[in-house]
Amino acid sequence: MSEHKYQRHVEKDHAIIDGIDVSGIWNRMWEPREITDFDFTNLNKVLDLSGAESMGWCYQCAQCIGVCPVDNVGSYGPRKLYRKLQNGMDLFTHSDLWLCTTCNNCLRVCPKEVDMMKIMPAVREQAILEGNVPGELQEMLQNVAEYGNPMGESARKRIRWMKNLDEPVRDLSKEPGEVDVLWYVSDYFSYHPRGNDAAQAMVRVFNRLGIDFGILGREEKCDGDSQRLCGESGLFEELVEHNHAMFEKNPHERLVVSDPHAYNAFKNHYPELTGSEYPVQHYTQFLAEHIDQLKEMLTGRFERKVTFHDPCYLGRHNGEYEAPRTLIEAIPGIEFMEMYRCKQQGYCCGGGGGGMWLDGLTGEHTSERLSENRVREAIMVGAEVLVVCCPYEVSRFEDAVKSTDNEGALEVMDIIEIIDMCINN
Which of 105, 117, 325, 366 could form a disulfide with 74 if both were Cys (CB 3.0 to 4.6 A apart)? Predict the structure, then answer.
């Protein structure tokens, strides 16, 4: 039998050590295995991209795997991607490219700072240029390019949620000018039926607080953060240019947003292109500053057991964990309990990084949706209401409640809906 190249060894025919005969096999010493037979072509294709260099820093400690939400329901994570690239996987054409939700949990624990928040957009951008993009994602990107929102709805319909609202709202697309608060409503609050509920609640709360606020109305467009993470940097730049012009057109003291993804975009990425810093706050941060006034207004009670889902782009990406909890704990009668995975270790809903529009693809590679996994956890801790503060999450979690057969056992509500309910009851 011929000797395998990785079974090279040396041994002495005659060897006596401290009087003990260890001749032959007993003194065999194996030579170190040299890892030289990998084809690094596809790994180098990734490393050559601007922003993706850190993929090569992985030393395979696997810290990321234990915290990767996708690995929790499948097989994924930066360490596994690195290993596959070593073994010749072409990430530019592989489905693994689109499974990352850019939740930032891997970077939180990575000792080498392998940054999937930069790697994935860089590789995805090249994949899109080469025509390698899932159909369901392509449809969303086309809708945003043509209509300014992922639903493909007309800009004129962006304010139809106000149609039956008996509350004053200043529409800056009709009455441009200065306001104290410019409220960026977001796509899902504007177009999704459940988002409409939260948008109307926000108006009522703002008005009860006496806030001088306005919205961009039909001139508002998608913030573009998810599209940027999908690799569509050109589309992101167009959205930045448009929204920045609208912000400049309507001077304001505060830019308040409903969506953590918009918060991330305006705070961290718009300034890179516009050179302007934005006075941006997530609505929970803004309302937390008015907590004393709110407490006086919260006359109704909410006698329910609730738990809270930390949005990745408010929490891990931007370090805000307390503002939502400040609001929740101020609600009379509420019984608040944390899920096992919360705050820095919070689990992802699956909607980030383009995942909001990739349920078909991810369903082929996971045992269940991330949102379903999270709903099961909320049920496990005994919650009756899963509280959220991201426009993606009400629809994602309500679908997950149905698909896990938990209708009637768990309700999904935005924080602003509960506040509105307790002010007006």
Answer: 366
